[in-house]
Structures are given as structure tokens and as C-alpha cells.
Design goal:
The chain is 52% helix and 12% strand. The chain is an alpha/beta fold and 310 residues long. The longest helix has 29 residues.
């Protein structure tokens, strides 16, 4: 089921925890839709940037969520999500009764279920709601959200979901299902990026015109969304991180752990993960995930474009 409302104009109060590349755009989308938004991040510069854009900032988690009906957590992983909720300055005990916690971090479904149970025991709602779409779509309110949780959690979260997403998939009434869908997406995304980078570097090794390779492949059956989206970074020689190598070190690691627990073989995931690990180990962990092409080039002697600096 997909739902989207262009501008709900809802007066609900929302807090966004984590103002990185995704969270900042999501906070902007919430503010644009008419919600009263407070942003918090461990980096004061991120909060200052949100304030400079007309938002409200908070110096602590408690201050951020004090009046929030909706808390959107856009941190990196399960450990950070747990710290936000139950750490030294955790918000689970200070959120308003009946408020909803929207968890957007990618994590093992079992952890999502555990966090939901602990949050709901405190009289709060928990929506398992991982996201996809990248920073540009986050800023436009056009994300895809893969959500699962109780009907009450969905109802409480609706103003924020409608503001942040072009598509909200309602995937079940229990946390964990949304997380599982996201891991399937990450399996494919990680493998597709690795394949795209392998292909473009192989083309470079053959001495082909890479601009022409891009033109031909994007009009052919071998194309993928990731090839079309990531290879321009390689052609520009620009590895500014829009999605970092470390994201797929983490996410494909989660997929591999899930598969091992189920005794399910994931050989393509395993191969791709080794390439992300090698890229990270060679110093590219915080660079764009298209840096896998650079790793292939280093291993093979292929010549890739370098960024033209004025």
C-alpha cells in the first residue's frame, strides 16, 4: 500500500535526531509541510546549519523531544538508535506519553523488534521505518519508507510520513518487517554498486571511452539504477561521499549475519562485502561508495578519470 499527501499542513511537533545528509533533508521536509520541527545532532555545526535554514535547534536530546509528538531518529545503526533511546541521555523515559518514535536506521530485524518492545512498554509507539532514496530525495520529501508497526504507531506518525515520503509502504503490524525489507534492498544495492564499479573499471582496463560506455550501457539490458546513478561520480573523478563505503561494510555485514543465522548462502553478498572491506582498509571508508571503482583500478592498473581542479 502506498500513501502520499503533498502538504498535510499538520501542526504536530516533531524532533529530528541526526541531521546528516538524510536527516537534514527530512527535517527540512517536515518544516516545509508545516510541522513545528526541532533538530538535534551530536555535531553542533549540523544544528547550526539547520537553524540557519530557519529551523529550531536543540543542544540536547531531552530538549529536542520535550514537546515532540513525533521523534524521527536518523542515526547510523542499531547501536546509535539504542543509545538515543536508552543511553545515558536516552529519550525513552522523557518522551511525551503516546508519542511515536520513528526509527529510520538500517538494522537487523531482531534488534528492531527488541527496541519496539522496550519502547512500547513505556506507553510510547515505535514505527520501524527504514528509508531509501538518497539525500536529494530526502530534501524534496520524496523518500521511499518501508514501515511496519501498530495501527496506532502509523496513525501517530502519519503527518511526518506524508511530509517525508513519496511512497510509504505499510508492511505489517509489527516492527522488524520494515527492517527486513530494507536489508533486501541493501543486499541488491550493495551488489549492484560493486558490479557497476567492476564493469566500469574493466572497461577502463580495455581502453574504452568511458563516457561512451556509460551512454551505451544505460541504453542497454546491462543497465541498473546503481550503474546509472553512481558511474557519473567515477566519470567526474569525484568521490565526495553521498553514500559512503562504510555504509555497505555495515549493511552487507548485517545481511551476511542474518543469512548465516538462517543457514542461507549469500555468495554475491560475501564477494561484494570483501571489496567494500578492502576499500575501507585502503583508506576509502568515508569516501563515496563508487570508490570501489578506484579500488579495482588500483588492483588492475586501469586508468580512471581524475577530478579536474580549477
Amino acid at each position: 500500500m502506498t500513501l502520499h499527501v503533498e502538504n498535510p499542513g499538520h501542526s504536530a511537533a516533531a524532533a529530528v535526531i541526526g541531521l546528516g545528509s538524510m536527516g537534514f533533508g527530512m527535517a527540512q521536509s517536515l518544516k516545509r509541510a508545516g510541522l513545528a520541527v526541532v533538530g538535534h545532532d551530536v555535531a553542533p555545526a549540523a544544528v547550526a546549519r539547520f537553524v540557519a535554514e530557519g529551523g529550531r535547534g536543540a543542544g540536547s536530546l531531552g530538549e529536542a523531544v520535550r514537546d515532540a509528538d513525533i521523534v524521527v531518529s536518523v542515526v547510523v545503526n542499531a547501536a546509535q538508535t539504542e543509545a538515543v533511546l536508552f543511553g545515558t541521555d536516552g529519550i525513552a523515559e522523557t518522551m511525551k506519553p503516546g508519542a511515536v518514535f520513528i526509527s529510520s536506521a538500517t538494522m537487523d530485524p531482531a534488534i528492531a523488534r527488541d527496541l519496539a518492545q522496550r519502547v512500547e512498554a513505556l506507553g510510547l509507539h515505535y514505527l520501524d521505518a527504514p528509508i531509501s532514496g538518497g539525500a536529494a530525495r530526502a530534501a524534496k520529501g520524496e523518500l521511499t519508507i518501508m514501515a511496519s508497526g501498530s495501527a496506532e504507531a502509523f496513525a501517530a506518525a502519519r503527518p511526518a510520513l506524508d511530509a517525508m515520503a513519496a511512497k510509504v509502504y505499510e508492511l505489517g503490524d509489527a516492527a522488524g518487517t520494515g527492517a527486513a525489507f530494507k536489508m533486501i534492498n541493501q543486499l541488491l544495492a550493495g551488489v549492484h554498486i560493486a558490479a557497476a564499479c567492476e564493469a566500469i573499471s574493466f572497461a577502463a582496463k580495455q581502453g574504452l571511452d568511458l563516457e561512451k560506455v556509460y551512454e551505451v550501457i544505460t541504453a542497454s539490458a546491462g543497465n541498473s539504477w546503481m550503474f546509472e546513478n553512481r558511474i557519473p561520480h567515477v566519470l567526474a573523478g569525484d568521490y565526495t561521499p553521498l553514500s559512503a563505503i562504510e555504509i555497505f561494510v555495515k549493511d552487507l555485514g548485517i545481511v551476511q549475519d542474518m543469512a548465516r543465522a538462517e543457514r542461507y548462502p549469500v555468495p554475491l553478498v560475501a564477494a561484494a562485502l570483501q571489496m567494500y572491506l578492502a576499500a575501507s582498509g585502503s583508506g576509502m571508508g568515508r569516501d563515496d561508495d563508487s570508490s570501489l571503482a578506484r579500488l579495482y583500478a588500483q588492483l588492475s592498473g586501469a586508468q580512471l578519470p581524475t577530478q579536474n581542479k580549477v
